[in-house]
Amino acid sequence: MREIKGMSVIITGGGSGIGKGTAKYLVDKGARVTICGRRKDKIQAVAEEIGEACFGVAADITNEADREMLVNAALAHGDGLDALINNAGNMYRGAINELDEQELIKIFHTNVIAAMMLTGLCVVELEKRQGAIVFIGSVHTRRAFPGASPYAATKAAVESLTKVLAAELGPKKIRVGCVVPGAVFTEINQRAGISNDKDAYERLQGMAGLHALGRIGTEEELAEAMEYLIRAEWTTGAVIDVDGGLGLGLTDA
């Protein structure tokens, strides 16, 4: 296992939720972390909150120039690059016969295409450090939630990417992994159409009994799994369920 202290890590979507929690977790372990988000005031406030080892960049990863700016900032802040965590994502829901084509294109751009392009941009630098790439999947690929086909499709793509890129980048000694969260409270729940934090949190708590371990998860528990994927030198192509057993599909029978 590699030492996380001194590593340089990019985390997209670092202004809230799992991204923010993982940034704080890795900084506490001694990493230098570069986070990005579209809202300048929010991303800078989060970076200041975490401390000087965290650098915030206002960037939209669907934009080529912003991706280049993000990578350059990370190289300067961390003196290189050891890991990329493709955490940024969005939610779009709807019945299959009511979906808007442009909204579908947008969610695939954010959740899949932008992450692929950013990953490609980081390969040269990651090869120098024999680094790691982490994608964020979803329990939506384990359980069927009606109305969630757009989001589930993007996360299925991400899991397939993990396997293919692990094979493709293995000769460069770049490792690729994916974590599959269960119910964790993040802002993406509001993007699913839930209007406020209170209602979103209560909805997730209502799912606690669907988890084999009887509760929803925390940002730190996801960060622990990502740390493993970054540090483990002989683990690649792994898709790790960190979901409290939600994906098991428990029934009362």
Keywords for this entry:
Rossmann fold, globular, single chain, 7 strands, 253 residues, alpha/beta
Description:
The protein is α/β, with parallel strands linked by helices and about 250 residues long. It has one domain: NAD(P)-binding Rossmann-like Domain (Rossmann fold), CATH 3.40.50. Strands 3-2-1-4-5-6-7 form a 7-stranded parallel β-sheet, sandwiched between helices. The termini are far apart.
**Total strands:** 7
What CATH calls the topology is: Rossmann fold
pLDDT < 50 runs, ≥5 residues? none
Query: Helix- and strand-based class?
Result: alpha/beta
The helix/strand series, from N terminus to C terminus, equals EHEHEHEHEHEHHHE
Question: Which secondary structure elements does this structure contain, and how are they paired or packed?
Answer:
Layout: E1 8-12, H1 17-28, E2 32-37, H2 40-50, E3 54-58, H3 64-78, E4 83-86, H4 101-129, E5 132-136, H5 149-169, E6 175-181, H6 188-191, H7 197-205, H8 219-231, E7 238-242
Helix pairs in contact: 1-8, 3-4, 4-5
What is the structure about, briefly put?
The protein has 8 helices and 7 strands, in the order βαβαβαβαβαβαααβ. By secondary structure, the chain is α/β, with parallel strands linked by helices.
